[in-house]
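From the pipeline queue, job 12 of 40. The input is one protein chain; the requested action is below.

Action: predict structure.
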Amino acid sequence: MEAAKSVTPDAVSLILANPSPDSAADLPELVVQVVDLKPIGTRFTCMATDGKTKIKAMLPTHFAPQVQAGNLQNLGLIRILSYTCNAVPGQTEKALIITKCEVVCQALDAEIKSGVKEEEPAIVLKPKDEDEVVSKPATAPPVVLKPKQEVKSANQIVNEQRGNAAPSARLAMTRRVYPLISLNPYQGNWVIKVRVTSKGNLRTYRNARGEGCVFNVELTDEDGTQIQATMFNEAAKKFYPMFELGKVYYVSKGSLKIANKQFKTVRNDYEMTLNENAVVEEAEGETFIPQVQYNFVKIDQLGSYVNGRELVDIIGVVQSVSPSLSVRRKADNESIPKRDIVVADDSGKTVTVSLWNDLATTTGQELLDMVETAPIIAIRSLKVSDFQGVSLSTIGKSSIEINPDMPEAHELRSWYDSEGKGTSMASIGAEMGARGGGSRSMYSERVFLSQITSDPTLGQDKAVFFNLYAFISHIKPDQTMWYRACKTCNKKVTEALGSGYWCEGCQKNDDECALRYIMVVKVSDPTGEAWLSVFNEHAERIIGCSADELDRIKKEEGDDVYHIKLKEATWVPHLFRVSVAQHEYMSEKRQRITVRNEVPVDCAAESKYLLEEIAKLTAC
């Protein structure tokens, strides 16, 4: 068979004879056929065959695009360029982890077979057996004993290679440096060369076992693969001053385990723990810059990430940049800089991104200076919240690239210049609602009002969220409907001595201020009624005008027109996303129900929802 000639004879035997090659230059031609290719989580497993012998193989996550595109197929031929063989716990055979390969042939018509046998553990002859003749069945192939070759000891080879190498290179010279993608919890000795691309703060904690401290870093190798490493107590105190952001290190004697999906911050199935016995040495003079790995999420798909632990990456066109302002943090009363930018992408939606600390003052100012050119930005590690429906915020590990040189940026620029620039785009926060997907759908977690008001313990420990279908039945005309707000930061202002308005947040005096709604409305459904707190953006949609406009109507057109305006907003159905929390008033705990999102009722979507609910009842 012509295809069989493309398979390297005895390739599996060559791999097992050299389970951890030092470099790709040491590898012979290794072409094998992929058999029984199947997904396991984000990875793929298969059997690699050379036509005579098979070995179980694993293809890590970064091969997924090739498999999904159909380039790497079952029964195809691949040339192995980099690999490692690891022992499988409880089994005698080894597993082949292919870290780099190229496709030779996408798929053959059938599996190549030439007396195929499963890879078996090698036969080890003990010294006392060397002169003995062991009888074998007639069908067994003869065992050929090759003469023993004279080899140098590992210590001799290392000494020759090391020469006058600097101490920082000791780990690299004494052991093979493994790519991160090849590591798993069952490996013993390994050395990695990585750059610190994110470093967390040294934090203290307290639990049933006592007090302690912890910090973590994100490590990236030259292939761009990342892993999170965590250190506790003595290890944290030892390595916190040692790890510096941006520097390159050799790391060994750590342990790996399956990553907790709730807390992991990088795309890796494993996470690393370093104890005080781990070895960390700075690789002085290393300058490799790992490529930043992004996992972009379209703006119109952000709804499913709201208030979740998973961080997101986005790429978009900057539409506007606000001035920088100072926000006073409640925890320690410290003032920190903040700046908001509005970003759009080719989903036709926009989202507000809050930049904090250095990103607000440095990168934010750079974006403000060039906003007229509509720069493309790629932002990594953003937190998604339900503020104003959907919004994004940077955290300590977030990073921003301006006009990055990547295919996604070029495609976005082409779209914006050709059609996006002239398109009217809506905010994803304003649009999230009846058509929203995932956890933001108004048709999940829907309850009646009585289910909230009849349970006074709701929100006792932390706020809980529900969806409501209700009518606004009453708006008190004599309540405090709005407050005077700073036009920059929206915080409450007070009348300054002499003239103007003083903002404590911005620490400045302004000639003018804005009015922002802060009101309560009574809502009703078939089971009861309740008072909801409503803030500016949602109140504007309910009333139909801004607080400044309603104030003008009351002052210039009189109370009658003002009351009519409020009555026009009643007995209209709405879908509400609300939070329920406990607050204390006059030494008494009370429920506070706050509107987090509001949308008008979509009759078609509502009818579909009701039919589905009826079907559930009739199926019981």
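Job complete. Residues 472 and 523 are 4 Å apart (CA to CA).
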